[in-house]
Specification:
Elements (H helix, E strand, L loop, with lengths): L11 E4 L15 H6 L1 H7 L3 E4 L3 E2 L11 E5 L6 H13 L3 E6 L9 H6 L13 E2 L19 E4 L4 E4 L14 H15 L5 E4 L35 H11 L7 E6 L4 H8 L8 E4 L21 H14 L7 E2 L9 H4 L7 H13 L4 E5 L20 H13 L4 H11 L36 H6 L4 H14 L1 H5 L1 E5 L6 E8 L2 E8 L5 E4 L8 E5 L10 E4 L4 E5 L1
Parallel strand pairs: 1-2, 1-13, 2-5, 5-9, 9-10, 10-11, 12-13
Antiparallel strand pairs: 3-4, 6-8, 7-8, 14-15, 15-16, 16-20, 17-19, 18-20
Helix pairs in contact: 10-14, 11-12
Bound molecules: 1-deoxynojirimycin.
The site of 1-deoxynojirimycin has 9 residues, from loops.
Amino acid sequence: MTTKKWWKEAVVYQIYPRSFNDSNGDGVGDIKGIIEKLDYLKELGVDVVWLSPVYKSPNDDNGYDISDYRNIMDEFGTMADWEEMLAEMHKRGIKLIMDLVVNHSSDEHEWFKESRKSKDNPYRDYYVWRSGKDGAEPNNWEATFGGSVWEYDEQTDEYFLHLFSKKQPDLNWENPKLRQEVYDMMKFWLDKGIDGFRMDVINFISKVDGLPDGEKVEGKKYVSGHQYFMNGPRIHEFLQEMNEKVLSEYNVMTVGEMPGVSPEEGKLYTGEERKELNMVFQFEHMDLDTQPGKNKWHLKPLDLRDLKKSLGKWQSELEDGGWNSLYWNNHDQPRIVSRWGDDKEYRVTSAKMLATCLHMMKGTPYIYQGEELGMTNIKFDSIKDYKDIETLNMYNERVIENGENPQEIMQSIYTKGRDNARTPVQWNSSENAGFTTGTPWIKVNENYQEINAEKALADKDSTFHYYRKLIQLRKQYEVIVYGSFEMLYEEHEEIFAYTRTLGDETLLVVTNFSGNNHAFDSTIDLNNAELLISNYDTAEKKENTFDLRPWEARVYKV
Ligand code: NOJ
């Protein structure tokens, strides 16, 4: 049986501070704004907050480009505000995990400013510098935010590596001094009393020696180099060292953001005896509505059978060792109710169904700010209203430089753009949804009169109260945390159903991922079953065959 741990029993809430709540009217969310909403989080019942970066940053990538790891961004407040926030969280029994972004720093970090000065600068090897190849970049890898991963620097006539934007130079983990700096910085925060870290693209930190070219693609100048830096040769060694030198001294939670990780690798990262991380945050299910082999902007409708296959595989692979995060949303993903639910007629019902399907699985659930309100995607008419570097770079490259059809590109931005998740949290129906008294840094979704927290709190049938109940159930029934998982009806195209079993307790979870009615025929006897939660007013019917209504979800204890 799986060992018991507090972080397996927890529900995490992610705050993207820029868009959460603005206390001083400058249009940008801040730490005092978070403090104002802690009672709201307490009422929801979450155990842990994952706070996206609040460190000093020039904000090329909204804080994921850090120029000082030990100080707070001016727009967000001061260290004293942060300390007050932590104390206020702890007072309410809420833990805090901070974002650890150490695959790269900002180019405005002191280390990088030194590093670029000369080839013999003591900080030179904190980053990855190479000379050009035949008058061009050292290799052909494409950066996540477009263009080459290499930026030429005249000062020393060399290129530095940046897997993301050119203002996010990659740190050189081969250098033991750099690693020690990171460990010291982690201790700085842990000694302030935080409860753990979410680690940004942590499986990218070890690169294959020689940084070989990626496989050429006809008509493309830069190509994927993923196989040379995802789950690289020294990754487990680095994480074990970090664990030994830092994490083992604290009772904290760690979650590794890991694109391109398989369940087998996930087990290596999180198997308890291996002493690396507590859980993975993986992306396989998030890629299922992307055309195979293409980047995220190339859309394809989701086939529910693929989703079941993927999530089911993670459930079974990690059954006897390892631990996974459960999520539909974060600050990089579109809003789930717009993505795989129905954000029009069945917005509330489908949001609840999606929540049920996720929260009843095995793993630690994550709720991304506004998800508990059933917040939806955004559609700005003009590209000028978008703020995300990934979206803007892609638009520039494809529309401005390559002359592709702007309407088509806007469609993919509406579907996949990261700003979908980054519009301000809708608190009430006053101007700017109560997020700010000033001008918000990004426009508020116009539907805030209908979708907002004040309204949700007052309505006992809201998604908010439904999430609250899901969280309560997790506290009440061990089977939700520790039970084993079995997928049912694998080949059904619209029903996602499974059981969870612990000892003699079994839960049956049935969810309808469509606006169609389905006759559901339970092979499990429901005669003495108790309905734990449902998104419809379902009378306790003791029948094994029932009509599953549009986007319906039911959880039975049998
Ligand atoms: C993953 C983060 O979630 C994303 O927002 C960021 O742009 C990249 N890592 C780079 O830090």
